[in-house]
Amino acid sequence: MNVTQSWQQFVLNRETRVNVRKEILDSWQRCRQLGISHELDQVASHISSDEFIKRREKNEVLLAAAVPVMEELYNHLKGGGYLLLLADADGYLIEMMADAKAQQICDRGGISPGARWMEDNVGSTGLSIALRTRTAMATSATEHFCTAFRIWDCSACPIYVDGEFMGVFDVCRVGPGNDIRELFTLAVSGARAVAERLRYERNRIREEILSEILLHSWDINLQSTGILSFDKWGKIIHKNKLASEFIHLLQQENQRLNPSSQTKEHHVIYQMKSHSEETAEIFLQGQRYLLESKQLTKQDQNLATVVLVTPETQKKITYPVAKPSQEEQSEVHAAFKTKNPLFKKTLHVAAKAARSQACILIQGESGTGKDFMARAIHRESSRRSKPFIALNCASLPKELIASELFGYAPGAFTGAKQQGNPGKIEAANGGTLFLDEIADMPLELQAVFLRALEEKQITRVGSTTPIPVDVRFVAASHKDLWLLVEKGEFRQDLFYRLNVFTVHIPPLRERPEDLELLINQMLSASCEQAWRNIITFTPEAMELFLHYAWPGNLRELRNVIERITYLHEQDQFDARHVQEFLDFGETAKIKMSERERIELALKIANGNRVQAARQLNISRSALYRKLEKYSM
Ligand SMILES: Nc1ncnc2c1ncn2[C@@H]1O[C@H](COP(=O)(O)OP(=O)(O)OP(=O)(O)O)[C@@H](O)[C@H]1O
Question: Within a 10 A sphere around the Cβ of 273, how many other Cβ atoms?
Answer without folding.
Answer: 24
